[in-house]
Every structure is written in C-alpha cells, then in structure tokens.
C-alpha cells in the first residue's frame, strides 16, 4: 500500500496573527512554523496502517518554498519514508490540489491523506478538489480510518452525527480527531530523517483561481462588564435587556 | 445567468444555516440583477421548500430520488452540477458545512469555478471584481479574496449573515431530475448514526452555547453546564483539554483544532481562554466568561464577566433564567 500524506507548513497555534503594513501579507517575522495540526492525524494514521500491514510506504508531500524543509524533515523523523516538495508558494487551494493530483497520479498512490484543513487558510477544499481531479472518492472529514486489503472503512463526521463509509483504493481522506494520537519524533527518528530522500520538483498546472486582496483583524472588544458573583442573576437580566441575546 | 443556491434539508425541514444561505443567495442575485434558484438536497418537504420565497427565492428545484435523503458525495455533486448547467448559474452559494465543503470543492473543479469557503459577508461586485470576505487563521483574522474565475462558488459561514423574512411570499417548487444512476451512489454511506440529542441543541447550528473547561473539575459536574444550557435552549461545548481527557466527546471541542462557532451568546465556564480556544469563539456576538481567576485571559475577550466559582455561579444563573421564563 502506497500512502501519500500531504502536509502544510503553518504558524504555530499560539501565534498572535499580524500582517505587513499594507495588510497584503501575513507577517512571518518571529513566527514559529509547525506541521499543520490536522495533518498530524493523517501522517500518524498512515504510519500506523503501514506498520500494521507490515509493508508499504509513506511519502510526505508539501507544496512550499525551501523554508518548509525543517517541518518536512520532522515528518520524516515521525516515520514517513520519503518526501517530495513542490517548489512553489501555496497560493490557493486549487493550485495546491493540482500539485497533489499530479504527484498522486504519477506515483500511483493508493491512499491520499491530509488534514481536514490548514489552520491558516482554513479552506477545507483541497481534499475534494484532488478527488475530483483524479476521479476518485473523497471522504471528508474522516474521524476513523481502517484498511482491509484494498477496502477502507471510514467514519465521516456530519452535523449532528456520523456516517460509516466504505471505499476502495485509491481514495482521498481528510483527517481529524479522534483518528489517532499524533506521534512526536524520537531521537532515532530524528537521526534517520537526515538521510531519507527529499525530492524537490517544480510546480505544474494552471495558476490560482483566487487571490487575497487584503487581510484584516477582527474588531476589538469594548471591554468586559463585570458582574458581582453574589448577584449573578443580574447577568441574565443584562443578557435579555441590554445585549438582547436571550 | 443566475444564482444557484444549495439548500440542505433534514426530516423535511430546511436547516437554519440554509435559510441564511438562501437569503444570502437572493441578495447576491439582486446585486447582479438576476434571480436566485434553489436546488434542495436531503429529505425535503414541498411546503417548506415553497416557503423559501420568504428569503427571496423565486424557484426551487427538487429531485425526489429517495437515495438522496442521506449525503452521497458523487450523487450530490452531479445533482448540483446538472442544476447549475440548466440554470446557467454564474454564482453558486452553499453552506460552509461538512456537506457544503465536500460538494463545493468537487464542484469547483468540475465547473472550473473559483471557490471561497468560510465567507462572512455579501460580496463586493463593484469595479468589475468579485470580492468576498472570509474567515482565516482559524478565526484570528479575515481576508478579502478576489474570485477571478468566470464562475464563483461561495460557502457561507453559519450565523454570520441574517436570514431575511418576507412573510407570505412563496417560491415555485419544480420537480427536477439529474438522471442519477446506481454508479453515482457507489459512495453512499453504509450507515448513518445520529447523536442522541435528547432535546438538546446541535452545536454547529446553535444560537447559544454554554461551554466548560478544566475549571469544571470533572465530567461528573457537567450537569451544571447542561442545566444552564437547557434553560437557555443552548448547546453544550468544551475546551480542548476537556475533550483530550475524554470528559466530553470530541465533537464538542471548540477551538482552533476543533470546531469554530459563532453563536449569538457564548458562555465560557472555567475556561482560561488560551489563544487557540479564543480563535474558535471570537466571532460570537456576545461572550460571557465565568472564572474564579480574575487574571484569566478570557476576560479580555469577553463582553460580560463574573469573577467567581463556577459551582456557585452556575446554579444561580440557571435559576435566574428559569425565573425569567
């Protein structure tokens, strides 16, 4: 079984978001970048399924410039076998999906996994685009993934419940908790990751279909109105008469 | 040229988020000088579909194929794509739901459209550009995105726009068939398991949310959260540490790596307000924080606050809500 795990390079979850003075770009200064937390579920689950089967390969794919390589090496340290970096800025979901679809097709991967969405762009789009480009099923968002031969059984989250879906390989799934407990690299993994293959390839396909014109931060709160704990019922009156939300 | 709106139904009712989507689609149509047509998915009822006229919809297409009752990715995609071609839709509007994301992403490739998800406002269409405002950085920011394709697909975030009500107006419900075959249903779910709601409110659709954190000290104390939620007609939610230790199920986890909510009222009980949690709730209209630590960062993001013990304050709030009703 050949697994392709797509990872995105995103600001750490504790990052305070700021933009360049013209509000056109995210201000990367001083920001720590991590593997997108949703993608960690995809990566760990692929490694677990490969280990359970006793054979197969896990390839990590990232669309990004050279500064994403530390996190690609981290994915290799966690247990992926090799990596591919498409040397281009991930301008929009469509552009990224084109790169993934091209590599998935060329490498004849059986299972294409990624996180539900990236925590920076929050598109939740790439999974379906890749599935459609390759003409294969997509299951998104998946909370559970098991493989038996070439048949996968997944739990897909829907609003208010879940669906049990079975698909045959090849397929795409976007992953979220509680699929697995994401792994962290150990010392041996970190040592071996240095020599695992990381191939850099140029981008293909058409340009992006969307362009970010400007970023903005949410409006600041006016300040908190404190109510005495002894008189907590007063809050309910304020919510009805002042805020008018109950 | 028209606007096609995808409306999700369940048990015969139009979902609240889809009423917002219908209203949004009708307003986009008015901006573009055209009309909005709905394609209904899920288990619909014709009388309820006709009522979409109140949101400004003129025509509703409905395929009564029984296998469309549950979500089937390929079948839904083909159904909507067929409707889009028939209506020559330039703009397709859907909910930013799990169904909307699954279908919208496939449609964008099939119809060669520009796609924007998580959209929070009506588009700007002046100057020949089509620009939408969408949530980014997990609720920590917004971005204005230009949709440069000839066709556009917009997934509208729940509770970010108000559904209009023009009482008494009705839409024409027209039977529609996309000629779906067995092959289109190959990825149909084997089983659908709904959560036991027991009179509760679903978190993604909720207008009010009562949420608990580690300050609740253990799952055995959640009756305090549930009592207040029940009195308010609210959904219950929790912070990440709480779902990580299995005090509460994962689908209740609100935050950067859980779900993002934007209710009218969010009451946080015993949650300190880590930046990752705030990202998931900061588009709520009114935020109330109850915490015994006056230095809890959540107070900075709150509209109302009570510095006090949740075990003491929550019963008082529940009693006060009951006294109101």
TrEMBL record, chain A:
User: Is-annotated flag, keyword Transport?
Assistant: yes
Record-annotated Electron transfer flavoprotein alpha/beta-subunit N-terminal domain positions = 23-210
Q: Which domain of life is it from?
A: Bacteria
Q: Which UniProt keywords apply?
A: Electron transport, Transport
Q: What is the protein's given name?
A: Electron transfer flavoprotein subunit beta/FixA family protein
- Give the organism the record lists: Hymenobacter ruricola
UniProtKB/TrEMBL annotation, chain B:
Q: Does the keyword Hydrolase apply?
A: no
SMART domains registered for this protein in UniProt: ETF (SM00893)
Entry keywords, A to Z: Electron transport, Transport
Q: Which residues form the Electron transfer flavoprotein alpha/beta-subunit N-terminal domain?
A: 3-192
Known InterPro entries for this protein? DHS-like_NAD/FAD-binding_dom, ETF_a/b_N, ETF_a/FixB, ETF_asu_C, Rossmann-like_a/b/a_fold
Q: Matching Pfam families, A to Z?
A: ETF, ETF_alpha
Where is the chain membrane-spanning? Answer: none
Query: Which family does the record assign?
Result: Belongs to the ETF alpha-subunit/FixB family.
Record-given protein name: Electron transfer flavoprotein subunit alpha/FixB family protein
| Native organism taxonomy | Bacteria, Pseudomonadati, Bacteroidota, Cytophagia, Cytophagales
């Amino acid at each position: 079984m050949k697994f392709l795990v797509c990872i995105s390079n995103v600001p750490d979850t504790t990052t305070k978001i700021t933009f360049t003075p013209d509000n056109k770009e995210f201000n990367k200064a001083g920001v720590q970048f991590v593997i997108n937390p949703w993608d960690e579920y995809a990566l760990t689950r692929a490694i677990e399924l490969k280990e359970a089967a006793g054979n197969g390969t896990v390839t990590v794919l990232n669309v990004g410039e050279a500064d994403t390589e530390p996190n690609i090496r981290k994915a290799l340290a966690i247990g992926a076998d090799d990596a591919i970096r498409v040397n281009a800025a991930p301008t929009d979901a469509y552009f990224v999906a084109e790169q993934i679809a091209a590599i998935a097709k060329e490498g004849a991967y059986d299972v294409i996994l990624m996180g539900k969405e990236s925590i920076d762009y929050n598109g939740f789009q790439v999974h379906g685009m890749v599935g459609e480009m390759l003409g294969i099923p997509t299951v998104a968002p998946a909370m559970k993934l098991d493989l038996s031969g070439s048949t996968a059984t997944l739990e897909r989250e829907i609003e208010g419940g879940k669906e049990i879906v079975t698909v045959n390989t090849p397929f795409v799934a976007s992953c979220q908790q509680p699929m697995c407990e994401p792994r962290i690299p150990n010392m041996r993994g970190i040592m071996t990751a240095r020599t695992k293959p990381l191939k850099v390839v140029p981008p293909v396909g058409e340009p992006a279909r969307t362009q970010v014109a400007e970023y903005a931060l949410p409006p600041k709160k006016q300040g908190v109105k404190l109510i005495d704990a002894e008189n907590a019922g007063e809050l309910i009156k304020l919510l009805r008469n002042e805020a008018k939300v109950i | 040229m028209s606007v096609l709106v995808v409306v999700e139904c369940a048990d015969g009712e139009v979902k609240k988020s889809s009423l917002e989507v219908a209203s949004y689609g009708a307003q986009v149509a008015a901006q573009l000088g055209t009309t909005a047509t709905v394609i209904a998915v899920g288990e619909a009822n014709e009388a309820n579909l006709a009522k979409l006229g109140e949101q400004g919809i003129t025509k509703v297409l409905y395929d009564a194929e029984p296998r469309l009752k549950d979500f089937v990715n390929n079948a839904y995609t083909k159904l909507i794509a067929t409707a889009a071609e028939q209506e020559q839709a330039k703009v397709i509007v859907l909910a930013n739901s799990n169904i909307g994301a699954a279908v919208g992403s496939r449609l964008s490739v099939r119809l060669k459209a520009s796609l924007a998800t998580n959209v929070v406002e009506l588009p700007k269409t002046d100057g020949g550009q089509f620009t939408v405002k969408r949530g980014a950085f997990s609720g920590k920011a917004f971005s204005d995105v230009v949709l440069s394709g000839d066709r556009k697909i917009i997934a509208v975030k729940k509770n970010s726009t108000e559904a209009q009500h023009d009482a008494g107006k009705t839409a024409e419900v027209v039977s529609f068939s996309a000629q779906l075959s067995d092959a289109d249903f190959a990825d149909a779910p084997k089983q659908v398991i709904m959560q036991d709601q027991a009179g509760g409110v679903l978190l993604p659709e909720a207008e009010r949310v009562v949420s608990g954190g580690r300050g609740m000290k253990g799952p055995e104390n959640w009756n305090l959260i549930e009592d207040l939620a029940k009195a308010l007609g609210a959904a219950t939610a929790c912070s990440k540490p709480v779902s990580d230790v299995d005090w509460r199920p994962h689908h209740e986890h609100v935050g950067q790596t859980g779900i993002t909510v934007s209710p009218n009222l969010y009451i946080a009980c015993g949650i300190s307000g880590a930046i990752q949690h705030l990202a998931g709730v900061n588009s709520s209209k009114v935020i109330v924080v109850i915490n015994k630590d006056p230095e809890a960062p959540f107070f900075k993001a709150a509209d109302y606050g009570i510095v006090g013990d949740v075990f003491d304050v929550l019963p008082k709030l529940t009693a006060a809500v009951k006294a109101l009703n």
